[in-house]
Automatic annotation (TrEMBL):
Residues 7-61 form the HTH lacI-type domain. It holds the Pfam family LacI. One of its GO terms (molecular function) is transcription cis-regulatory region binding. This is LacI family transcription regulator. InterPro entries: HTH_LacI, LacI/GalR-like_sensor, Lambda_DNA-bd_dom_sf, Peripla_BP_I. Keywords: DNA-binding, Transcription, Transcription regulation.
Length: 338
């Protein structure tokens, strides 16, 4: 077998018994090819290890038909669902998706990541920024490679989109207070998480606006075990009747910890979470939470890249918000109804 880099369109045409023009049509996904011919050409491509020349395709069509995505962790619930939205939207527009992770072991920067992406056949890049990057305020994208940031904080040089992390806390705390609870304890996510810090800030601010001093803060690591340990401790807080955990895993762990310590949920302590990540995972899920529209967020971020590819200038310095939705289940007790 020839090396892929040395295989030409003519080689494929010879093996498949067609013209080079037919191979070109198959490579460019032209519909004007008989199905049986397409199969024969694709089999020849596979046998020879042929790959289309992306640069040549871009010169001909003005696009690579590929969007890049850079992120820290593709296994995290939110990131995985955002990525799914991007991939599906890209597919609907005939685009592929190229995924890269930020370099580990050194401070993450947008510039380093974009320099790597420039070596790949992509038309634009979506950054999923669940952690801080060193050059967030100084990075300036080049005119030939559109960039969209999924970030809680709006950027001065790039279009920005995200769910409303801060507003999520405001909604949940206000909801618990409206049910007659006098205060709300919080299990925060890890300090490296931008979302966790925004949710923590929203929790503190809304309590102070209501004239309530924020109680002791508990810090978890997004996993259910950290929520369980917090639940064990919160069971010994005499004034704790409501807990807001920064994600559903910690919220569910907290419920189990409270119950292990002899507390009932929601009869003794109400618990709410964020993300709606346990639906379909935990049977008979009773957890009240905020449903984040991660798939919609991913789709919209791709559309923002596509609009820039088409020459549209998107506003910077502001954030497009995909608001979450409060999902009421059975983990909150209404003290007003008694």
């Amino acid at each position: 077998m020839k090396r892929a880099s040395s295989v030409s369109m003519r080689d494929v045409a010879k093996l498949a018994g067609v013209s080079s023009q037919t191979v070109s049509r198959v490579a460019n996904n032209n519909s004007d090819v008989r199905p049986e011919t397409r199969i024969r050409v694709e089999q020849a491509m596979e046998e020879l290890g042929y790959r289309p020349n992306y640069a040549a395709r871009a010169l001909k069509h003005g696009t690579f038909k590929d969007v890049g995505v850079v992120l820290f962790d593709m296994t995290a619930f939110g990131n995985a669902h955002i990525l799914n939205g991007i991939v599906n939207a890209a597919r609907d527009h005939g685009f592929a998706t190229t995924i890269r992770a930020f370099e580990s072991g050194s401070p993450a920067t947008l510039q380093n990541a974009i320099d790597q992406m420039k070596t790949l056949p992509v038309d634009g890049v979506v950054f999923i920024l669940e952690q801080k990057v060193a050059d967030f305020n100084t990075f300036k994208p080049t005119a030939d490679l559109p960039v969209v940031l999924i970030s809680e904080e709006p950027a001065n040089h790039c279009p920005t989109i995200d769910t409303d992390q801060y507003g999520t806390s405001v909604t949940l705390v206000d909801y618990l207070l409206s049910k007659g609870h006098k205060n709300v304890y919080h299990i925060a996510g890890p300090s490296y998480s931008v979302a966790a810090q925004s949710r923590k800030r929203g929790w503190e601010d809304i309590l102070r606006q209501k004239g309530i001093a924020p109680p002791s803060l508990y810090i978890g690591d997004w996993d259910a075990d950290s929520g369980y340990q917090a639940g064990l401790a919160l069971a010994h807080e005499p004034d704790c009747t409501a807990v807001y955990a920064a994600n559903d895993q910690m919220a569910y762990g907290c419920i189990l910890g409270l119950r292990a310590a002899g507390k009932r949920v929601p009869e003794d302590v109400s618990v709410v979470g964020v993300d709606d990540s346990l639906r379909g995972v935990v049977p008979r899920l009773g957890l009240t939470t905020m449903h984040a529209k991660f798939n919609e967020l991913g789709r919209e971020s791709f559309e923002m890249v596509l609009r820039q590819c088409d020459g549209e200038k998107l506003p910077v310095g502001v954030k497009t918000v995909i608001p979450p939705i409060l999902v009421e289940r059975a983990s909150v007790r209404d003290l007003n109804a008694e």
